[in-house]
TrEMBL record, chains A, B:
InterPro entries in UniProt: ADH-like_C (IPR013149), ADH-like_N (IPR013154), GroES-like_sf (IPR011032), NAD(P)-bd_dom_sf (IPR036291)
Keywords: Metal-binding, Zinc
Domain Alcohol dehydrogenase-like N-terminal per the UniProt entry, residue ranges: 25-128
Matches recorded under SUPFAM superfamilies: GroES-like (SSF50129), NAD(P)-binding Rossmann-fold domains (SSF51735)
Keyword Zinc: yes
Name of the protein described by the UniProt record: Threonine dehydrogenase-like Zn-dependent dehydrogenase
Lineage: Bacteria, Bacillati, Actinomycetota, Actinomycetes, Micrococcales
């Protein structure tokens, strides 16, 4: 089959690799119908060391089950399914707590010997805990929105849930990428009436307004912080959803969070140490939360409004490519010509 | 009047200073009946630069109102009152949210021109928002327990509340000082059934057991972390109440917190930067919370069980001194001969 592999910074190729096969009785083989490129795929695209053998890429996909192992009980051949980006057994103590990203028998796609989702097919470990059947046809127009359940919608929703957003909560979303825009949609879903989106790409912030943002702040750093404070009576917002992952975004979050408020991070931090003492988090009683989103925990909740057409998170896809054009998708996203690239098979 | 002042590291003296007077119509003057030395008073005791004029000390006191300004309405001359360590108007948006430590018109005792509580009398700004009447006599045996409402009991309770402890929550408390022990009592109050106290002073951890700790881990660092993991099936506890403030205590908290859990800090951080990236907080979806406790918000809730004798937080006082002996109190606490020194007038 064909699959996208990365061989070093800026070097993505569509290559031919062996077809995946059932290895464990809990596995399923999925023929992929839609996949996409994630903002987090751009991190290795920027700094990966050269690797002659390459690494598989992609962790967002939906497709049709072609084969299942002997222990798989909740999905069957022919089902159209979406996978959470972290595969998980669904039965361990962490899964039962809704923290599938810490599953005792789980892991991540495109890592640890499991293939990537930017491929014609994939082996899905722990199929019962990982896959959710989608009650639509393989050619449904809803597929792009349904694909966001694999990561970006659930990740934005995780940010909002962890921040405990309600109608009384003012919100700043930092970042106008796909996850930031999904955080806007999620904050609105949880009832927030004031959602300030910090981003400087007009096409994206315009989409943010369509998804629920009430204000847009294009400035960054101290200037952006001053603008948000000005919009909030000098105190900042109750919650800040940080959907970037760079240190500058964290510093911005510290600047716009209200005393007693919450910074909820879902952008994968590209730093380890940062200020958390009296002058940053502690003195203002600010809570810091977030992490890799257990999107599996949210699919059941988010699915109905996509099926009914009430929400359309698939709007984040503004480029459609074939698997052979995977390199173009990375290039377009990296240069910000594309917000998010959908791969159609 | 007499008051304890600090003139440099290790240099506390009881000196004579002018009596406090009403300066604002919202002020009250309180004749102090009981005060005490706080673990946080030991930080300047370790590292304060020499200051010829000295600085007033102490932020925990109860006493009798001797005078009030013209706008004071909820307390009157002759009332026995306890003060929250952060004075606050009780009416601003942050006070109404229960975050009196961020009061728009508030501040801290022994700072910014307001005197300290280790003194015969004190001017209390924003008396209506800061003072709570105690329905006992000036010679009540309950005074030591009531005095803990000024800081340490409310601070331990803040740690537990911010961690959202319930009966289903396992707890590690780091630190066997007065605040750590009050965190144990508070965790038990909120229903926790498993409370692991990390501390190595047997007299204190014995008191911790009396207050609700179910396990004691005397080891520190990696050895202590391994012990807690061993006690919790390898995963750590849902919540960690960090009542020390040193970086080593934060690192210990990272080591014993369960994925998806909460680290709640009330020890004033003696560091600013620390790990919060993928390898520490983020990857495990750990929430970091806490800060200076808005103890005023908790007094109404905590008072009845002290009055009824159900709880006895005053057990943290194991030394009683006079104001003239203030230096001895600091010395005893610094050398860990005393857990907490009560000043009796």
């Amino acid at each position: 089959m064909k699959a996208a592999f990365m061989y070093g910074a800026g070097d993505v190729r569509t290559v031919t690799v062996p077809d995946p096969t059932i290895q464990e009785p809990t596995d399923a083989i999925v023929r992929i119908v839609r996949a996409c490129v994630c903002g987090s795929d751009l991190h290795p695209y920027h700094d990966m060391d050269d690797a002659a053998e390459g690494v598989p890429m992609g962790h967002e996909f939906l497709g049709v089950i072609e084969d299942i192992g002997g222990d798989v009980a909740t999905v069957k051949k022919g089902d159209l399914v979406v996978a959470a980006f972290a595969w998980a057994d669904g039965t361990c103590e962490f899964c039962l707590d809704g923290l599938q990203t810490s599953c005792l028998h789980g892991g991540f796609f495109a890592a640890g010997g499991v293939g990537g989702g930017q491929a014609e097919a994939i082996r899905v470990p722990q199929a019962d805990g990982t896959l959710v059947v989608l009650p639509v046809a393989e050619d449904s127009e809803l597929l792009p929105s349904l694909l966001t359940l694999a990561d970006v919608y659930g990740t934005g929703f995780h940010a909002a849930k962890q921040a405990r957003i309600t109608a009384d909560t003012t919100v700043t979303v930092i970042g106008d990428g796909a996850v930031g825009l999904m955080a806007v949609l999620s904050a609105k879903r949880l009832g927030a009436e004031r959602i300030i989106l910090m981003g400087r790409h007009t096409a994206r912030t315009d989409l943010g307004i369509r998804l629920g943002a009430t204000d847009v702040v294009a400035e960054r750093g101290d200037e952006g912080i001053a603008k948000v404070l000005e919009l909030t009576g000098g105190h900042g917002t109750h919650t800040v959803l940080e959907a970037v992952g760079y240190r500058a975004a964290y510093d911005q979050a510290l600047g716009v969070v209200r005393p007693g408020g919450v910074i909820s991070r879902v952008g994968v931090p590209q730093y380890e140490d940062a200020p958390i003492g009296f002058g940053s988090l502690f003195g203002k009683n600010v809570t810091l939360t977030g992490g890799p989103a257990p999107v599996r925990a949210y699919i059941d909740e988010l699915l109905p409004d996509i099926l009914s057409g009430k929400v359309n998170p698939g709007l984040v896809f503004d480029q459609t490519i074939s698997l052979d054009e995977a390199a173009d998708g990375y290039k377009a996203m990296d240069s910000r010509q594309a917000l998010k690239s959908l791969i159609r098979f």
